[in-house]
Specification:
The protein has 321 residues and is of the alpha/beta class. It has helices at residues 2-13, 18-30, 33-40, 44-58, 74-95, 115-132, 151-157, 190-193, 201-206, 213-216, 221-228, 243-249, 260-266, 298-310, and strands at 63-66, 69-72, 108-113, 137-141, 162-167, 176-182, 184-189, 209-212, 235-239, 255-259, 272-276, 284-290. Helix 2 (18-30) packs across helix 5 (74-95) and helix 3 (33-40) packs across helix 4. The mean pLDDT is 85.
Amino acid sequence: MADTTHTKLANRLNKINLNLLLVFHTLYWKRSLTLTAQALCLTQPAVSHSLKKLRLLMDDPLFIKTLEGMQPTPLARQMDAAVAKGLFYLDQAVHSSNEFSPATSKREFRVSLVDYVSQQLQPKLIQHCLEHAPDLCFNMLSTRIASAEGAQQVLQEHDIDLAVVQFETLPLTSHHEYLFDDVIGCVGDATFHGESSAITLEAFLNSPQVALSHREDSPLLINEKLRELGLERKIVAKTPYINPLQEILVSTALLCVVTESAARVICRNNSLKFYALPLDVPAFKVCLCWDERKDHDPGIHWLRQLTRELMTPAPSALGDP
């Protein structure tokens, strides 16, 4: 049975070589014969000849010339998802066993971080690599990963090597690594809200609030918890950015629900204080996530280990939550 399957596969793929697939995939993204030829160091006639072969093999034009460039047909769109994945796995199979030396590598890593994590991790990462991996480059991206279920799709669509994310519960997949719990509380000006370690429910409901939208708009964790109790808070603004909160919250009665790690960034050299919530809200699980296709990539293994070391939470300087 296995021999028969292998023979059929060989007969189907015998006329398609890797160069044709590379031309197809590159043309799909470049949408130009000229740009495809330049990217692959080929002549334009060679690219045209390859496209002609593919059209005959697939019995489909695959790309239609328009004013906006070579537009893929429905079959080409369907094909590229499989071709891209196949080329990626082939590249990983050939190169993933190669040794990775941070001291000499010139690789660029694409890393996704939420705002406050970027402020904490990025300086440490760059400072470490200036000394130990001077030719590496880090492309820091702010890519929304709101759930464990959608993590792999986002990582692969944006070609992300590694992401530091917050999850409500630990994912069940093997392509994540738990780092630590990040307690959820709120930040406000101690001049208005006092020096206590916790805020009362009355004060929490009566104070206008700014919501960090990168976590609180999907899902609205605090709103859902309040709704269960028949209560509601007043949100006057939403923002995905940490830095403006330092100026927005100071000298006002505003509150902002954040994690303790985010509060370390916000409560610097000002009158802001981190308060425990008057609600039973479980801590976020801070995790590393990586592209499952890169499980055996030694560079990703190195980056995971380094990030894990640099992300170890420092002792709290904010008082008891």
